[in-house]
Amino acid sequence: MPLAMSHFGVVLGVTLILWCGFTSAFGLYLQSRCARYTDRGSASFFALSQITYPNAAVVFDGAIAIKCFGVGVSYMIIIGDLMPAVADAFGSSATGLPFLADRKFWITAFFLVFIIPLSFPKRLDSLKYTSVIALLSIGYLIILVVYHFAVDSIDDRGDVNIITWDGPVAALTSLPVMIFAYTCHQNVCATTTFLPWILQANKFSDVFHSQRDQGQLTW
Q1: Of 19, 48, 197, 212, which is least packed with CB atoms within 10 Å of its CB?
Q2: Whether 31 contacts 192, CB under 8 Å
Q3: Got the DSSP string for 134-159?
Q4: What is the C-alpha to C-alpha distance for residues 143 and 31, in angstroms, rounded to an integer?
Q5: Can you tell me the distance from the alpha carbon of 130 to that of 211, in angstroms, rounded to the nearest whole number?
Q6: Of 4, 25, 49, 22, which is closest to residue 175 (Cα–Cα)?
Q7: Residue 123 gets which letter from DSSP?
Q8: Prediction pTM value
Q9: Cα(169)–Cα(152) distance, rounded to whole angstroms?
Q10: How many domains does the chain have?
Q11: pLDDT digit string (tens) for 187-205?
């Protein structure tokens, strides 16, 4: 995100973050309204496609599967990039275990220890404790960034573009970062299936609007 902001400039970058958050919330609202036309507890993209374009239901499911696969691969790449540095910060180089600096080891370890076991629960509420850990991690990251911004002094911080940008090519290469920040629409149908009280109370859009606001503040 800092790299994307440097390409867009502060004004355009903040505007795009707000715009992406708004369009994401609007898409979630439309999905929540459409999910109300399916049977209670059976909302899915396949079920919605059966109502709108029955012949294209498999195509929609395939597109969602490819999208989720891409998101999962991106997280694996992030794990492989960051974990060797994290292990080195904890003194892995002094242990004499070279595999701790191997990105393939960390990708495999996370895949076997965390990703596979967390993929098998049949209900979303089985991940509530994992979600709490994730929220605490995000809170810790926000506190860490704000602390270092206030305490650390950067002598050579370079030029900060307030209004100017780096041109359309650099901006287009960074635009997926803005979009990826709000990629959660594939979870809508699963959420409506396992949280029927949201549909009953007509608060589905309120839940995702609050998530959008939290996401914008975080980024």
Answers
A1: 197
A2: no
A3: HHHHHHHHHHHHHHHHHH---S----
A4: 33
A5: 17
A6: 4
A7: S
A8: 0.67
A9: 33
A10: 1
A11: 777 776 666 544 444 555 5
